[in-house]
């Protein structure tokens, strides 16, 4: 039985990856942080599975990482743990650098210190945020990086230290440069989930208006369930390489809003521009979407559009879920959750 350690197992991707690896017959270990309320909601259904073991730890604690790696000696490590919110990283830049940047170094160093270079393969959760102020569209594995947030700068360090440890110590380590991927398990303050929760609330009369920041930002949005397969595929190749994982389509936040409300039977009409822009319910005439500048970022990433050709050719990976299917799934799940 192969073994895998997932850091960030309690997050969106951690939950989908846990299911994926258990289905493949893996023994799965997960790193969890101690908190005053232990919330493992996303992985609750797997907690009774004997093949899943949780370990307390933190990416900011080297001795903890070394001890865990020494005890588990996993065949594969998926480093998903991160302070993953771009907006919040402007408020917590030092912590973000520590967890997202240095955390990756700690993991790679543990492999080296323990002599696991030939045993343990590493997946590093890199991100399309590395492209930031984009230098080329669509973005591929060869597009230059230009990070636009403390989060992206920390992830840039993690990207390059992964490449360096691969080249210097022959560790099988891959960067998955994943574009935005969403699901009903998405954190509630990321824009897609914030929108689908608001749609369910507004539909049920529990909320009047949805306040958002930049409606013009464009993202290449896919489904998280499709993307975890690509993480695994990278570690099954003959040689370690970095891959862009994306859909190859881009949409504005505004389009996501329209599509999500339409899924709940609400038709939106846009009025005004800039911070005065609002979305009106065509049937009732009520303002149900408005811009609030508090959600603008000090530096924004305006356009992301990935080129997943290499992943298709070498991994045989393609997204299965379309943009409309993704929005539909998220809205329906949030409507159902409210009913329950
Ligand atoms: P989430 O924010 O849903 O999950 C992050 C996970 O990291 C949680 O389990 C969290 O634990 C854990 N974590 C945070 N800080 C630490 C720490 N210091 N020590 C240990 N664990 C920690 O993120 P996603 O699942 O969406 O993303 C997974 C990874 O992929 C992240 O690294 C993210 O940056 C990256 N990524 C995500 C993309 C996306 O669109 N989703 C796109 C590209 C990259 P807790 O539950 O305790 O908070
Ligand atoms: P992102 O995701 O920053 O791309 O990072 P997010 O959903 O937070 O923002 C996407 C775009 O929407 C705009 N936006 C808003 N964003 C939020 N959160 N809240 C709002 O109210 C709002 N209004 C408009 C943002 O300005 C932005 O342009 C995600 C994370 O999962 C990262 O960890 C990951 O690396 C990248 O995706 C790829």
Strand count, sense and barrel status of the largest sheet are: 7 strands, parallel
**Number of structural domains:** 2
Low-confidence stretches: none
Task: Tell how many strands the DSSP assignment holds.
Answer: 15
Order of helices and strands: EHEEHEHHEHEEHEEEHEEHEEEHH
CATH topology tier name of the largest domain = Rossmann fold
Q: If classified by CATH, what would the architecture of the largest domain be?
A: 3-Layer(aba) Sandwich
Distinct ligands, ions and cofactors found in the model: NADPH dihydro-nicotinamide-adenine-dinucleotide phosphate, guanosine-5'-diphosphate-rhamnose
CATH hierarchy, class of the largest domain: Alpha Beta
Quaternary structure? single chain
**How are the strands ordered across the major sheet?**
3-2-1-4-5-6-11
- Mean pLDDT across every amino acid position: 98
Strand content: 15-25%
Helix content: 25-40%
What's the CATH superfamily of the largest domain, by name? NAD(P)-binding Rossmann-like Domain
Q: Count the DSSP helices.
A: 10
C-alpha termini separation: 39 Å
Summary, kept brief:
With 340 residues, the protein is an alpha/beta fold.
Question: Mind explaining what this structure looks like?
Answer:
The strands form four sheets. The chain has a seven-stranded parallel sheet with strand order 3-2-1-4-5-6-11, with helices on both faces. By secondary structure, it is an alpha/beta fold. A hairpin with a 5-residue loop joins strand 14 (about 280) and strand 15. About 40% of the residues lie in helices and about 20% in strands. The protein has helices spanning about 10-25, 60-70, 85-90, 95-115, 150-170, 190-205, 225-235, 255-265, 310-315, 325-340; strands at about 5, 25-30, 50-55, 75-80, 120-125, 175-180, 180, 210, 220, 220-225, 245, 250, 270, 280, 285-290. It starts with a strand and ends with a helix. It folds into two domains: about 5-185 and about 220-250 and about 305-320, Rossmann fold (3-Layer(aba) Sandwich); about 190-215 and about 250-300 and about 325-340, UDP-galactose 4-epimerase, domain 1, CATH 3.90.25.10. It contains ten helices and 15 strands. The site of NADPH dihydro-nicotinamide-adenine-dinucleotide phosphate (NDP) has 25 residues, from helix 1 and strand 5.
């Amino acid at each position: 039985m192969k073994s895998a350690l997932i850091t960030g197992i309690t997050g969106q991707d951690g939950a989908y990856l846990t299911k994926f690896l258990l289905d493949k017959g893996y023994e799965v270990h997960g790193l969890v942080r101690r908190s005053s309320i232990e919330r493992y909601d996303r992985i609750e259904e797997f907690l009774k599975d004997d093949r899943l073991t949780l370990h307390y730890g933190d990416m900011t604690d080297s001795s903890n990482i070394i001890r865990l790696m020494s005890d588990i000696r996993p065949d594969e490590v998926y480093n998903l743990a991160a302070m993953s919110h771009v907006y919040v990283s402007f408020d917590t830049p030092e912590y973000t650098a520590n967890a997202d940047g240095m955390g990756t170094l700690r993991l790679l160093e543990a492999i080296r210190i323990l002599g696991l270079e030939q045993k343990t393969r590493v997946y590093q959760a890199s991100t399309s945020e590395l492209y930031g102020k984009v230098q080329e569209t669509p973005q591929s594995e060869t597009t230059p990086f230009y990070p636009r947030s403390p989060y992206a700068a920390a992830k840039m360090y993690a990207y390059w230290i992964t490449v360096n440890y691969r080249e210097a110590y022959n560790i099988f380590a891959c960067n998955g440069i994943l574009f935005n991927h969403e699901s009903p398990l998405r954190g509630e303050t990321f824009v897609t989930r914030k929108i689908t929760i608001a749609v369910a609330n507004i539909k049920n009369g529990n909320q009047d208006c949805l306040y958002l920041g930049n409606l013009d930002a464009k993202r290449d949005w896919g489904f998280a369930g499709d993307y975890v397969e690509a993480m695994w595929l990278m570690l099954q190749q003959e040689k370690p390489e970095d891959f862009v994982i994306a859909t190859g389509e881009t949409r504005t936040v505004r389009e996501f809003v329209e599509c999500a409300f339409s899924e709940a039977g609400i038709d939106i009409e846009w009025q005004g521009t800039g911070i005065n822009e609002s979305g009106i319910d065509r049937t009732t005439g009520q303002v149900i979407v408005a811009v609030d500048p508090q959600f603008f970022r000090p530096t924004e990433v305006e356009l992301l559009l990935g080129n997943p050709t290499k992943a298709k050719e070498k991994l045989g990976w393609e997204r299965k879920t379309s943009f409309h299917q993704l929005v539909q799934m998220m809205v329906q799940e949030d409507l159902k959750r409210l009913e329950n």
